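Check out a protein:
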Amino acid sequence: MSRSEQTYDRALLREHLLKTRIAGDVATPREGNLANYRKMVSKDPGYQFGLTLKDWTFAETLEMMARLCGVSPDPRHVRGSDTIDVDLTLDALDAMGARIGLAARRRETVILATGHPDTLMGVYRAVEDALRAAGCVVLVPAAGWSYRVTTPWGPQHREILYTSGVAALGTDGTLRHTHDPHPMRAALRELREAETGQWPDLVVADHGWAGAAGEAGIETVGFADSNDPALFAGQAEGKIAVTVPLDDGVHPDYYGPLTAYLLGQAGLTG
């Protein structure tokens, strides 16, 4: 692919990301963003994503999120819409694609996992298929591992479910949204205890799946919304290699061009 074709693809994807509000003026409200930044700062376990982070102040967090994600840096902007810088999204996709491409060339061992199976599963499945075709080993540890969680509707069962080689959390076969790092910790614990020598060279994930992997010292690339500051903080601290800023809650079909671009940057398209 020529330089002009690469530039054209990036320009087309930039337009698509803005049109679908995956980046640019996103639907994630400013109030929710700021509330979640405060939760991370206060060490709320649900907003650490399995990372042991330094003591961040709110001002530091807002500056960091403006720099790495593209939200408004103005602390006086407390209501209404917020933004994700589309060029930061594209730059991070370039970096993620380069790392996935390296994994493919090296035929590395990989884990893929998502806390947003309803919207992002298609992205992960496409990456999985491309890595398998390149000769990578995709691990599926701790399938069926389960635990109980407390919800507003009472205790519920949760277990690790795999869609092909992509891990997610589920209940009775239904995949669930989660921030929880415990499933990734269980998966890594099983790999350690198995003593087979299998260990991931790379994790492609989001939410607590990514945070727990990064905390374990595994090179990790992932996706995060503007209301999920922990992975960006992990990147700032050197525990997460790449965090791609995007709205992780739009229609799943909208991520198709993003996925094609990512695989193109990895050199994994025909």
Q: What stands out?
A: The first helix runs from residue 3 to 20. The mean pLDDT is 95. The first strand starts at residue 24 and ends at 26.
